[in-house]
Amino acid sequence: MNKIYLDHAATTPLHPQAVEQMTTVMKEIYGNPSSIHAFGRQARHLLDRARTKIARTIHAKDNEIVFTSGGTEADNLAVIGTAIANRDKGKHVITSSIEHHAVLYACNFLEKEGFEVTYVQPDENGLIHVGEIEKALRDDTILVTIMFANNEVGTIQPISKIGSLLKDHQAYFHTDAVQAYGTEEIDVNDLHVDLLSASAHKINGPKGVGFLYIKNGTRMDSLFYGGEQELKRRPGTENLVSIAGFAEVASITSSRLEEKRQSYKQLKDKFLQALEDEKINFTVNGSMEESVPHILNISFPGTEVESLLVNFDLSGIAASSGSACTAGSIEPSHVLTAMFGSGSERTRNSIRFSFGLGNTGEQAVEAAEKIAEIVRRLTT
C-alpha cells in the first residue's frame, strides 16, 4: 500500500540540506554562543549568520529577529509581552475568532489579567474585513493580532491593508505568519507589521525552533527570566543545531518561492480535478482565490470527520480535521464554526488536505480516487 502524506500544514519532512547542515553542526560546533573563547566565537558566528539569513527572507534587520522554540512561543511573546509592556497606554486588544490557539489562548490569558479583547468575526470564506478592524479600533487599543493565512482553510488575510490602517495609531500590529512563511512573499516594511511569528517545521525545517520579528522600538516585556540571550528578549542558551537547520531551509525556500508556490498549486488543482472526475459530492471551504497554495479544506456532506480520517489512514492517506494542536479532539473546528455557525454540517464533515515536499501529481490523483471511493462507501 502506497502511503501518501497530505498533512504538511501540521508538520513537514526535513529537507535533506537541513539534515546535512544540522549534522555538521552537531559534529563540529558545540560551543556556547555566549562564551568568549574560540569555541564560543565559532558558535556565535554561526548564530549571527543564521539570524542574517532569516532576516533577509522577510526584509528585516538582523537585530529584529529573535529565535524562539517555535510559532507558539513566538505568538505568546508577541501577544502577552507586548500587551503587558504597554498596559499604561490602554488595555484593549483586537484579534479574530479564527486565530491559532496560540494566539487565542494568549488573549484569554490577557482577559484574566484585566485586558479587554475584541474578537472580530470572518465572513463565509474565512476572510477578516479591514472595515471590521476599523470599527473595533479604539483610542486605548494597544495591540492588533491577525494571522497572515489561516491554518485550517488557508485564507490569506489583508495584512497590508490592516497595517496601513494602523500606521498612525498607537496599537502595535502582530501577524502569525506560520502558515504563510515559505509560500508567500513577505516584506515586513511593506506590510507595516511590528511583529511577525514563524516556525521552522512548517517549511521542512526542524521542530522546536521558530522566530519572532520585533520591529526596532517595539515595547515588549520578556516572558522568561535568565540571561541576556536573543537581544535580551528571550533568555536561554540558543538551540544552535535547529537554528542552523532553520536558516538553511529558509534560504532555500526564499530562493525558490515562486517555483514552490506553482508546484503546490498544481498539486491542489490535480487533486480537485480528480475528485470532480469521480463525481462525488464535496464543497471547498474558504477562498480559492485568496489562499495559500498548499492548504485545501473540503466538506464531504453525509459523512463524519472521525470515520473519514480512520478510513483515510487505513488506505494510507494522512490528512487532518484542522489544527494539528487539536488532533484527536471531537470538538468542532472553531474556524469552521466561526465561518458557518455552530449548527452547520460542515463543522463535522470537513477535512484539511495540505501538500508539500515529496508529493507528486500521481499521488494527488491516487489520493483523490481513494478518498472518493471511501466517501461513496460511507454515504451509501
TrEMBL record:
The keyword Transferase applies. The keyword Transferase applies. This is cysteine desulfurase. Residues 4-363 form the Aminotransferase class V domain. PANTHER family: CYSTEINE DESULFURASE, CYSTEINE DESULFURYLASE FAMILY MEMBER. It comes from the Bacteria. It catalyses: (sulfur carrier)-H + L-cysteine = (sulfur carrier)-SH + L-alanine. Its EC number is 2.8.1.7. Its cofactor is pyridoxal 5'-phosphate. Pfam families: Aminotran_5. Keywords: Iron, Iron-sulfur, Metal-binding, Pyridoxal phosphate, Transferase.
